[in-house]
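Field reference: sequence -> structure
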Amino acid sequence: MEMKMIGSKIAEARKKMKVSQAELAQRLFISPQAVGKWERGESIPDLITFNRLAKVLGVDLNYFSADFPSTEAQFQPKTTGSSQSAEAKDLVNFIGSNLDGSDFANITAHKRKFHGSALRGSDFSGADLTESSFTSSDMREANFDRANLTDCLFSALDLTDASFHQTTLLRTEFSKSSLIRVNFSDTKLSEVKLTKTDLRTTLFKSCIFENVDFKYSDLSGVSLDGQVFMGVQFTNTALNGTTFKDTTLRNVSFRAQYALTNKYYRTLQTICFDGAMMDKLTYAALKGVGVDLSRVTTI
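Structure field:
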């Protein structure tokens, strides 16, 4: 029933535009037979094609939902006042899907679910994935360059060799995941949470960290040289041998959840801050636990 409803809406919009199935197929770079199957309710487009189809037909994705009224107004892009039904949302969620090497570049897909799926090598570059969630999936070598990941959740993932270059990371959460050789470059992380995450081989270059919490994560031996940290919390974070050379630190907290111990002091004393600039309160807190700040400048 759902597929037939979607098929009829595709046919209705196509006829409204006065184009044939063959002409629509040509604009979508697919076969006319595929369009025919959609309109007969025998199949439905995938997420990427849904986005292309909506643009070609001059509608938004809400148009394909069961509760969207069939009126003349539906053929104009709609930005407010309409919500998709649960059924329509399910059409563009991926649960237990085999999507290795998929092309999701530049799509708009808010509040989508990518759960328990094979997504190795998939391309999300330039995509707007606001409020989407990725859990329990293989995301090795995934490309999130220039993507918008505002309010996204990444949990229980293998993100080995994934790339986040010039990515929008606002209130994004990474938890219980492996970020082996993941590349964060030219990126601002704002209000991001990295909880119980293995960051020992993660690469950070030219990044700004603002109000970020590295709670229970492992940054042992990581080079954070040349980065900017503002309002950052390293709560129960493993920092053995981590380097903050030539960094800027303002209102940064290095603290254990429980009582301070000799082991905690020794851990902080392995951190290198040579050439760093930090505010006086951060400086005092670190100096008070015996950290070598002889080559640090206060600001």
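Note: The longest helix spans residues 2-16.
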